[in-house]
What we know:
Elements: H1 2-24, E1 28-32, E2 35-44, E3 48-52, E4 57-61, E5 67-69, H2 76-85, H3 89-96, H4 107-126, H5 132-145, H6 152-166, H7 169-180, H8 185-201, H9 205-216, H10 225-240, H11 244-255, H12 264-280, H13 284-296, H14 302-315, H15 322-336
Antiparallel strand pairs: 1-2, 1-5, 2-3, 3-4
Helix pairs in contact: 2-3, 2-4, 3-4, 4-5, 4-6, 5-6, 6-7, 7-8, 8-9, 8-10, 9-10, 10-11, 10-12, 11-12, 12-13, 12-14, 13-14, 14-15
Amino acid sequence: MRDAFKKTAIFFVIGAMSLLGSVTARGDVVRVGSETIRGKVTRMTQTEVVVDQGTTSRTISVNQIQSIEWDGEPALLKSVRAAFEVSRYEDVTSILDKIKVDDSTRPEVRQDIEFYRAAAAAHLALAGSGSIDDAGKLVANFVINYPNNYHYWEATRLVAELLRAKGSVDKAVEYYQLIAQAPWPEYKAQAGAAIGWAYLEAKKTDEAEKAFDQVISLQISGDDTPKLLAIIGKARCLVAKGQTDQAISMIQEILKRPDLVENAETMGRAYTALGLAYRQAGQIKQAIMAFLHVDLIYFRHTPSHIEALQNLVQLWPQVQHPERAAEAARVLKEQYGREVTVTN
């Protein structure tokens, strides 16, 4: 009786351990929206990832992937991703410095480490902390060395952003055009809008307007941010041509949308464009109010904030407030390293 009981107990323990093993076996973890897909990644390209789940396999489009956690990866890599998602790029770098790799480290893990180090450096450089050239080399090397990594498109975009920040507009456009070759309409729209803004910043208005018109004509579903940014860019092209009434009307339609209130880039660019249109039309007080929206509410979008402050430095003295112009100049210098002179 006792022997039979022992045998039963042993079989029970073995069965429980087998069951526990199947539950806790982790594998690779691919996150797509609210869904978690577990298995083994057997193939990865710049457009899709294939996950083997034993009896079946799933092919996942890269544009849907939020992240991939690799089986056997260092525990700290999860902390890296968490810090990166909330834009704590200095933390990303410091955590990466603690991760040790050796010959047994999985290639995909090595590539993730390289991507996050390069991407963090790029974001810090774009924010004014770190060398644009050094960060550019890191992300450009990633693009060259790992064209089949699912981070390829983000790395390519960062190369373009760094080139754009450096003033190398034509080279930046080349990288944006690579993104425009992606098979997803939203990527084409994002790249097209970025090309338009790059040309606009270089004062190539005709090229910018052509790029914006192409985005506006695209049929895209879901997030319409790229199309909105193209409309705002188009409005700025109209301002440059002196067509301020039409530009103001286009921007005001966007500002009516309550769903955009928290979108710092769209609203920052919209109010900056509105301010420029009013200024061009000689409506100085309205221009100041538009730029103040950026300074006080949408300052998180750095390019718009810089441009708004630069305009406020010039406009405040026109309404007898040189002290406020001096304050805007102080913020430009201390926060962004931009030197401007206040004129009375």
